[in-house]
Amino acid sequence: MAVRRLIPLAVACALAAAAATPAQARGTDEPYCATHKCIALTFDDGPGPYLQTLLKTLTTYKAKATFFLIGTEVKKHPKLAQQIAKSGHEIGNHSWDASYLTQLTYAQINKKIGDTQRLIQKTTGKTPKLFRAPGGLRNGGVEEITAKFGLIQVPGTTATKDYIKDYRHVDLLTNRALDVAGEGEVVLMHETIKETVESMPEVLQTLTAEGYSFVTVSTLLEGQELTPGQVYPDRSGMETTTAVE
């Protein structure tokens, strides 16, 4: 069962302020997605070798995305992480490596999330407000620690399942992305999968023709009251597990 804790008011206010910034920047209090058909495309495990190709495709279709970065990869490729930020995309924390946090001690979880948070901030100048656990596996310890860092958890609402090797064909992943697309969805994909990156031009072209706006997760969540440590959008149906002591 997930462990809840009281969040310092300053942290909660800071998160709310960050989430409200896109609307304020447009000179309005109305959430963008209240009047637009929004979808949030998210990419895990980078920054990776196909990032620059993906960024060019996103630019072509005026699409913004959210990248959940791995600490070890940011350390290896700091300039790529900086390029994501400079391109106006959102950066989220995806822990230090691929280790399942539910198999770690509280102290180990704290270090992996904290080290990644500090490295991304130091490298890009951006402090992540979003977190996605490796494998989507989370527990009370993850909830408590993400809350401490002012992070909300974003496991995603749907996925192309490009993490399955048999799915790694451009046509299949293109069809998968179009099948799972929907207004308000947060689509989980991986920028480290070449076929996913190669599928994006057709996916973006098709969804653009259908009237979609490609936004960051924070823009998608505008107008909602967000509590650090909790899951958004709250539609994943994923189970939590007990922390390893």
TrEMBL record:
InterPro entries: Glyco_hydro/deAcase_b/a-brl, NODB_dom, Polysacc_deacetylase_ArnD. PROSITE patterns: NODB. One of its GO terms (biological process) is carbohydrate metabolic process. Residues 1-25 form the signal peptide. The keyword Cell division does not apply. Keywords: Hydrolase, Metal-binding, Signal. It comes from the Bacteria. Residues 37-215 form the NodB homology domain. Pfam families: Polysacc_deac_1. One of its GO terms (cellular component) is membrane. GO terms for molecular function: hydrolase activity, acting on carbon-nitrogen (but not peptide) bonds; metal ion binding. This is Polysaccharide deacetylase family protein. It comes from Microbispora catharanthi.
